[in-house]
What we know:
The chain is mainly beta. It has a domain at 118-146 and 188-468: Beta Barrel (Porin), CATH 2.40.160. Helix content is 15%, strand content 45%. A 16-stranded antiparallel barrel has the order 1-3-4-5-6-7-8-9-10-11-12-13-14-15-16-17. A hairpin with a 7-residue loop joins strand 16 (439-448) and strand 17 (456-468). The longest helix is centred in the first third of the chain and has 44 residues, at 27-70. It is elongated and about 115 Å long. The two termini are 68 Å apart. 25% of the residues are buried. It comes from Ramlibacter pinisoli. InterPro entries: Porin_dom_sf. Residues 31-58 form a coiled coil. This is TonB-dependent receptor. Keywords: Coiled coil, Signal.
Amino acid sequence: MESTWRRAGLVLCLAAGSAAAQPAPDTQSLRRELDAMRAEYEQRIRALEERLRAAEQAAQSQQAPAQSQQAAPGAVVVPAVPAAVAVPAVPAPSPTPTARASPPPLLEASLILSGQYTHTSRDPADYRIRGFPLPPTAEIGPGTRGFSLAESELGLTANIDPWFRGFAAIAFTPDNQVSVEEAYVQTTSLGQGLTLKAGRFFSSVGYLNAQHAHTWDFVDAPLAYQAMLGRQFGDDGVQLAWLAPTDQFFEIRAELGRGRSFPGTDTNRNGAGMAAVSAHSGGDIGDSHSWRAGLSFLRARADNQDLAAFDSVGNPITNAFTGNTRVWVADAVWKWAPNGNPSRQNFKLQAEYLYSTRDGSVVVDTTGLASPGNFRASQSGWYLQGLYQFMPRWRVGLRTERLNPGVPDYGANAGLVGLDSGNPTKQTLMLDWSPSEFSRWRLQAAQDRARPGDPDWQWTVQYQMSLGAHGAHSY
């Protein structure tokens, strides 16, 4: 009892001393708080005393009958010392129960706002890549002239439960079209370095393909990507990735998909219309250098795929291709930053080589002659680009690229389709300024020789702004 009163008195003294140390304007409020504390402690002490008294009485009443039953006649009864009675502590107020067994997943949202102004010396409406027949709707060239909304993107991501996470990217194009770039679920705890992804996603072939456009170092995709992957290859399907448990980075990814986009077609078929596999390795060299390199293979099936072409006298025609396309990609990236700190200075050298074969049949001039025949083509292309950050927030970049269309074999239709001569090339210079990690302004100038005739001089001013939570970008 005395120790209990001492503790209560000590608490009251500390509270009184604390109240006396406060400034005068708070005296009344502190006195009210002190009175409330004193009343609360007195109430708790009285409750403890009553419980202690009740426990002692219960112990004595239980002990007396036991002693009278055990004592023999004539024996001296020695009262037993009662065991210490544990006084339970005053229970703290229990928290209000929640209506859910677990909190809902935290949904993170981000919005990339992008716009640009483009000036070209040739009309983008008749843009084409000579020697590479592509679908009429292919996303190639510099886009529209003048001011335009570039591809803006809404991203949504969240962990669904301990086993899955989800991600969706909805793109808004300059012509007021809305498309789902990516929408997939991905495992988080398969173990053994395995990860499974299902839904719509960009393929992991090459280096640039899996990256969203706002992470590119230049405004547009290289010509090789435009000509052989339709700018960027994405599909609906599944992907299994395995990360090796080694000090050096090594990863293998395998994909099966619908084959809905170029070089495949979205047709009503059972099974997979696309298969891809990629392997990448990388690591650090000292404190200032790092690298990554890889090989990839993509196979896609096309059925009656419309391809823009021209006849032997230069009139536009449409051909329909049915067959298989195989694309091999070799990519390499090397980065340098003094002592691994890229905030002030850094340099990135990036290169990819693509080789494509198309083998099947083609119907030449579907709305005219409609002449069927065999078709085969072997084509290649590459690009090399370097980015140098010469001071904080400022970068300069240079990209050079070249395509080899080869000589397509139209079989019996050889004289019905016109063939381009020469190799498409392009040279691009870029300067960008990033006031923060959430904003970027870019000036780009390019000499584009993808079409026959005079070069197309292209000037672009672009802005990119990031709103909301946005995940880190890949290497």
